[in-house]
Amino acid sequence: MSGGTGDPRYKLAADNRRARYDFEIGQVFEAGIMLTGTEIKSLRGGRSTISDSYAAEKGGEVWLYNAYIPEYLQANQFNHETRRPRKLLLHKKEIGRLAVAVQREGMTIVPLKIFFNDKGRAKVEIALARGKKLHDKRATEKERDWNREKSRVLRDRG
Questions:
Q1: Which residues of the chain form beta strands (DSSP E)?
Q2: Domains of the chain: which residue ranges?
Q3: Is 11-132 a domain of CATH 2.40.280.10?
């Protein structure tokens, strides 16, 4: 269930880099996304953002809210709404697992990235996440700085 980070077959359309800073990432899922033709064309341009977006379960389905996909300029009057809710395509068991985690454990469904797989289909990598407190963010930053300093010292000595 991993997305396409370093794999050349995958083309990244949008990345939520802030999610790993603001949330503790748990289980990761790969979901399809229902899009219109102009949304696909616009996604291929790579100017969309998902940093403010989230996913939620509603009526047995999972929806992606507040994801920004800019209008496709060549589409005239047939264009799409830029921030409309978009349905995510998951198996029933996965939807149930996500719904239980959100209701019982107080977790959030966070989109990590939108990418095109090797067949050219748009996919969304979502994760169950728990929000970090300010002191957790500071600890993460301190650990990152220490690792950077440590690798610099080892590189200079070796």
A1: 11-15, 23-33, 54-58, 61-65, 86-89, 108-116, 122-131
A2: 11-132
A3: yes
